[in-house]
Design brief:
Elements lengths: L1 E5 L2 E5 L5 H7 L23 E4 L6 E2 L10 E3 L3 H16 L15 H8 L23 E3 L9 H9 L6 E3 L6 E3 L16 H5 L5 E3 L3 H9 L4 E6 L20 H10 L4 E4 H22 L5 E2 L4 H10 L13 H17 L6 E7 L3 H7 L4 E2 L2 E2 L3 E4 H10 L21 H4 L6 H15 L17 E8 L2 E9 L1 H12 L7 E5 L17 H17 L9 H11 L5 H7 L11
Parallel strand pairs: 1-5, 10-11, 10-13, 12-19, 13-16, 18-19
Antiparallel strand pairs: 1-2, 3-4, 3-5, 6-9, 7-8, 14-15, 17-18
The protein binds iron/sulfur cluster (2 copies).
Length: 573
């Protein structure tokens, strides 16, 4: 270890690391607008400059390596002055519409301007006349607010392996755009929203469904039902200042009722339903000899990714709809019949950690007899906005239970919120379906944690199954290429679009740090450890649904309502 001196304090540093890495570990904050943890520094914004004794110019801490005995001043008058000038220049051409911006109060540019004491406009430049791109079902762009930090471009390419966007144009006309500068709706964007989560300003946001939801709630003719995904209850609290990893499921249920939803259901219930169908499909594919590996189908960004880039592997995708869509389909069929309500009078809302779920809900494949399974999708962030709009005090709400019959879940269903969780849940049920007995150990440690690719060999009924769980589509691309080249043999592959899974989805609280993601993951594991019903086939409400309506997994009715298919998708690449 080396020792460096920062603001007259000695701190340890590792040889080869950057100044910023050493500072961050020591808890010393230096602002940056372009840095992305885990990726190589780009040095684009220069906000992180610091003064190093003996250096003629300020150095960018994100890319400058530490050296023994180095003396650093992070907030010297010169460093602060340089940062302030950069922010003032960025603001020169920025639209002055903070009051109308979705990121007001949560914008890094605004925060820096405040911290650096920017109180007057010293520089002016021409405002951008770029029109917002709002045609996408999931991601909206307002490039007039873009500060060209490049984070979205890097996430899209390096984390997601999609490269739907890049810098285009030259000089002062440089901007972030898609192929041929067309709308993002016709690009190869998979609508994951990871770019939204890293954008420091309001240049990127989700396509909001709040208006449709509020209007439906106001309509006395409509029965408005809502479901919430497994990871939402462990992230929503952060929007209200609670510690990452706080599970607010009961409070959220109470809040949803107060907001006017007529029924509150838990998507973890239909995660159990997905598992019953998906594990049955896996068992059948194993018996029938394929097509293998079977690939999970609950992450809509991943589905679009396969349709665009790996269409020859479409038959490997499970035909199961995602839990969101399965619950939507059951609500507008079984539930509507049981309640005696015309399905056309049910407005079905889901609260998801994901922007791509908005796209999924609009897919023509996700309907039955012309009736859409899901009518509107809110992200975790949008639900928080709605709660604030209605003035609900989270701290004063008493926890409430979800409604029957779709409120009961196993902990396997709850594990859908983390990478590896769908696989773990499916293996528990596949073992039961193939052998008639329960696994002696339900936990698959090898499939847990935040590693990019997790693998295991699992013995079920005398057959050794090679399984893998992958998150982040750049990683998925590597695994698919290995499968295609015959370098990797798998029976079952789980892919979640977002790194770590839905707990870090594109609709979750902005700028989630890795520790927050870890805390969210841990609380889902704790739920699985502590509760009694840990397998989907032991969920009594699921059994009842099959007895009363669906008959059995993979029945004709299940196929009609709960399964679908996909085809090659042509997009501008
Ligand atoms: S939503 Fe995902 S795929 Fe689309 S531009 Fe953003 S990061 Fe890329
Ligand atoms: S859209 Fe946002 S993340 Fe992308 S370059 Fe502009 S400011 Fe940065």
């Amino acid at each position: 270890m080396l020792t460096i001196q920062v603001n007259n304090r000695q701190i340890p540093a590792e040889p080869g690391e950057t100044i910023l890495e050493a500072l961050t570990r020591a808890g010393i904050k230096v602002p940056t607008l372009c840095h992305l943890e885990g990726l190589l520094p780009s040095g684009a914004c220069r906000i992180c400059v610091v003064e190093v004794e003996g250096q003629r110019t300020l150095v960018p801490s994100c890319s400058y390596p530490v050296a023994e005995g180095m003396k650093i001043r992070t907030h010297s008058p010169r460093a602060v002055r340089a940062r302030k000038t950069i922010v003032e220049l960025l603001l020169a051409g920025h639209p002055d519409d903070c009051l109308y911006c979705v990121r007001s109060g949560n914008c890094l540019l605004q925060t820096l301007a405040e911290e650096l004491g920017v109180r007057q406009r010293r520089y002016t430049s021409q405002k951008s006349d770029l029109k917002p791109d709002t045609a996408s079902p999931a991601v909206e762009r307002d490039l007039s607010k873009c500060i060209l930090c490049g984070k979205c471009v890097r996430v899209c390419e390096e984390v997601q392996g999609v490269s739907a966007i890049d810098f285009i144009g030259r000089g002062s006309a440089t901007r972030v755009g898609t192929a041929f500068d067309e709308g993002i709706n016709v690009s190869s964007c998979i609508f994951c929203g990871q770019c939204i989560n890293v954008c420091p300003t309001g240049a990127l946001r989700e396509q909001s469904h709040l208006k449709e939801v509020v209007n439906a709630i106001k309509d006395p003719e409509m029965m408005v039902v809502v479901q919430h995904a497994p990871s939402v209850s462990v992230t929503l609290g952060e929007e209200f200042g609670l510690r990452p990893g706080t599970d607010v499921v009961g409070i959220m249920t109470a809040a949803l009722r107060q907001l006017g939803f007529d029924r509150v259901f838990d998507t973890a219930f239909s995660a159990d339903l997905t598992i019953m169908e998906e594990a049955s499909e896996l068992a059948r594919r194993i018996k029938d000899g394929g097509p293998l590996p079977m690939m999970t189908s609950c992450s809509p960004g991943w589905i679009k990714f396969v349709e665009q880039f790996y269409p020859e592997m479409l038959e490997n995708l499970s035909t199961c709809k995602s839990p969101q869509q399965m619950l939507g389909a059951v609500i507008k069929s079984f539930f509507a019949g049981r309640e005696g309500v015309d399905p056309a009078r049910i407005f079905s809302v889901s609260v998801m950690p994901c922007t791509a779920k908005k796209f999924e809900a609009r897919r023509p494949e996700m309907s039955c007899n012309g009736v859409a399974d899901i009518d509107a999708v809110l992200t975790t962030r949008e639900l928080a906005r709605l709660i604030r709009l209605r003035g609900l005090e989270i701290s004063s709400l008493e926890p409430e239970a979800a409604d029957t019959p779709f409120g009961e879940r196993s902990t396997a269903g709850k594990l859908f919120g983390v990478s590896g969780g769908v696989m773990e849940a499916a293996l528990r049920t596949a073992h039961y379906l193939l052998t008639g007995s329960e696994l002696s150990e339900l936990r698959f440690q090898a499939l847990r944690g935040l590693a990019e690719v997790k693998e295991a060999t699992v013995e079920i009924g005398g057959t050794a199954l090679n399984v893998a769980a992958v998150s982040g589509l750049a990683n998925a691309r590597r695994v698919l290429d290995e499968i295609r080249a015959g370098e990797r043999t798998l029976h079952f592959l789980e892919v979640m679009t977002c790194p770590g899974g839905c707990i870090a989805g594109g609709g979750q609280p902005i700028a989630s740090d890795p520790e927050a993601v870890r805390a969210r993951m841990q609380v889902l594991y704790n739920i699985d450890r502590d509760e009694p019903v840990r397998t989907s086939y032991n969920n009594a409400s699921i059994r009842q649904l099959y007895e009363q309506f669906l008959e059995r997994p993979l029945s004709e009715k299940s196929h009609r309502l709960l399964h679908t298919g996909y085809s090659r998708r042509k997009v501008l690449i």
